[in-house]
Amino acid sequence: MSPETRVCQNCKNQFGIDSEDFDFYSKIQVPPPTWCPDCRNLRRMLWREERALYKDTCKLCGKAIITIHAPDGPFIVYCRECYKSDKWDPLTYGRAYDFNKPFFLQYRELMEAVPRPALTGNNLVNSEFTQSCESVKNCYYVFWSYFSENAENCHSLLFSKDSYDCYTVDNSEQVYDSLHCDRLYKVRSGYFSDDCLDSSFIYDCMGCSDCFGCINLRKQKYCLWNEKLPKEKYFERVKYWDLGSYAKLQEAKEKFHSLYLSLPHRFAHVVNSQNVTGDIIRDTKDCKVCFSTLDGVQHCKYIYSGGLNLKDSWDVSAGGDSSELLYEIYGVIGHAIRCFFSVGGNNCRETWYSDWANNSSYLFGCISLKNKQYCVLNKQYAKEEYETLISKIKRHMNEMPYTDTRGRIYNFGEFFPPDLSAYAYNESFAFSLYPKTKEEVLTEGWQWREPQKRQYQITILPKDLPDHISDAKNSITEEVIGCEHSGTCNEQCTTAFRITPNELNFYRRMNIALPRICPNCRNAERRKWRNNFTLWHRNCMCNQKNHFHKDTPCPNEFETTFSPKKPEIIYCLDCYKAEYL
């Protein structure tokens, strides 16, 4: 089909559907979307929790638990052990499809009947206080991480160890406060940097060692604030920047940010990739509008965090691991094939509108099934019955669609409605990437949850912490430290926090000052170094006369995540290479 321009049912802005999009929709036999790419991603992210955690009790064994579900909600929540056990059977909650009621309402009713996990994760060793992790050891307050150990306050680690306060760091060790990095060793505050060691405050540096406060460097040593120094001079001058002192740490942060704004940046972080558009892309081929994709992603579009041999998929938020033909999913991984409009799941095939499916196939509207086939709303059918029923359900979804309070219509081919999510907007991933006020969320007809009232008895204020880590006593681990933000930042602030013994030892070993804000606020501050998942058409800002364009402005144009409203200086790849490579 020829490309078309349509109006988003949600934001009312125009968006395009290309010929390759129509080909994909035809291949998987779904109608074209009625929401634009950004709104589709927001809608999916609203169906997954991020960092909001609560205290409750398991409704099966009665033990105290930490859970992703607010205790005053309508859901039945089991601890991780009970949820995985054979003490209950999800099929007992199955029900016949009701052709007198919209599908999405029936699904929400099933959600409130089937027990939900307090926390998810597999193969965890001494890592109970983690969420959605796989094969991790000695981890605490770690989210969505895999094959990592000895980590705290991290999100999206992969094959990393001894890492604290990191976001999307791979194959690294002894790393602190870093974001979107690969193969680091003994690095503090590294951003978009790879193959670096013994360095602090580096941005877009590759193959560097013994560098401090540096940006856009390649294979350099002994550089301080982008100035190349003799070895002895470097170590003499870097002594001033003693990051064990909180005052010096803050001074370094301010100087580093000023240097960052004064230098040009490449329009996108793309490494070893071909025919791609988007940002934060590594080892990817033939992909458009993709963000945070890595390791073998091929022929995909509208991917928002995917990797490990994800292929032939559209509209994926957090998915991959040798999967293909995924559409409108969040968190589906592990050899998944032809999974659509689903949230969570592992090693599944041909699943539609399902959540937390494992090792299953041919499911429609199911929750928490494992090792099952041919089920609708958690009820088992014979193959022929299933196929006949699915055809009827798809027609029924179009004949009796769900309509929300704003008049948005959800037929077959739409992802789950945001207002039916198990999570409030400010509990979900959508909140951090598409921030909205309470008033905006409620106007949309979506859920908002007031921050839970904390009963912490703060024993020490951040201003009373010792300036230098060397002056921190072991007893600091017994204190309840007040967060400087005091819950006023709208960043899921916990208002107070503790320092664990392992964390204290790490700060001492790495010579890092004690933090003054809680882990959630630290996570939000760190993520400000990353742009949102929106592409802007822009021109190169270079006017250097020694580049190929000589006395005229650079004519190159590109798609970038740097908004025109942002203060950064943005170069095309040709000008960036001419300046730094």
Structural features, described:
With 581 residues, this protein is α/β, with parallel strands linked by helices. Strands 20, 21, 22, 23, 24, 25, 26, 27, 28 and 29 form a ten-stranded mixed beta sheet that branches. The protein has a five-stranded parallel β-barrel with strand order 10-11-13-14-12. Helix content is 20%, strand content 35%. Strand 28 and strand 29 form a beta hairpin. Among the domains are: 161-266, no CATH class; 462-527, no CATH class. The radius of gyration is 25 Å and the shape is globular. It is built from twelve helices and 36 strands.
User: Helix segment count?
Assistant: 12
Terminal CA distance: 43 Å
Q: What's the overall geometry?
A: globular
Question: How big is the Rg?
Answer: 25 Å
Mean pLDDT: 96
Strand residue percentage: 25-35%
- Output the structural class: alpha/beta
Largest sheet: 10 strands, mixed
Number of strands: 36
List the uncertain runs.
none
Work out the helicity level: 10-25%
Organism: Candidatus Jorgensenbacteria bacterium GW2011_GWA1_48_11
Protein name: Zinc-binding domain-containing protein
